[in-house]
Design a protein that fits this description.
7-stranded parallel sheet, oxidoreductase, EC 1.1.1.51, EC 1.1.1.145
Length: 268
Amino acid sequence: MASSDHGMLRLEGKVAIITGAASGIGEATARLFAAHGATVVIADVQDQLGEAVAASIGLQKASYKHCDVTDEKQMEETVDYTVVKYGRLDIMHSNAGVLGPIEGVMDMDLTQLDKTLAVHVRGTAAAIKHAACAMRASGTRGSIICTASVAARQGSLGPAAYTVSKHAVIGLMHAAVSELGAHGIRINCISPFGVATPLSCLVTGMTPEQVEDVCCEMGVLKGVVLRAGNVAQAALFLASDASEYISGHDLVIDGGVTVVTRHNVQAN
């Protein structure tokens, strides 16, 4: 992936935390942010993978911090670690996620629903809370980005528990816009369609190529395969000054799926 657009480093001098950055969309975003000049804190529970990603980016540009986003104390400690180590926090990308139970509502295990909500809703709330507090304290006009999903826009694009939790992520973003805006802090969501990540491959039992084939078949925009790098590019835009007057927006990356009436579609 190119390190910059026409030689321009869009995040030069900025510091970012990305949760769930040891693999998948988070990893792609961490690599892209670093390529554009940011210093990145990879926050995840996959310690071995996270350390490896940080090392491959380069320890002058990235570090790993163990962080279970469902534990508010760990999220707070991750923000504090970042500010102490690098002197500032400009970008929070709340990206950690799980697919959760794949059963429908009538067969849903509510204990598993609670766990899904804990990661997506509690984890996102903790990320927003502590990042915004740190940005307010330092007077930083920061950017907070939350990974949502097309499942929050159209029924049957994801399992029920996942869909509920992603609706809540967008709700949290909407609820925070005015409060954060008073301090010059922007907050937005990105909502991708199906991507062949390690998580989606594990849950479906498919290879990345098989997941991509299924998503392409369901997709509307033909001739293009949605990959983690495409989602990372959207996050880069929202993290950079190119979007300095955009807040409260859900940037959908779906090739038009959610504006076309479709039935019996399943994309995770």
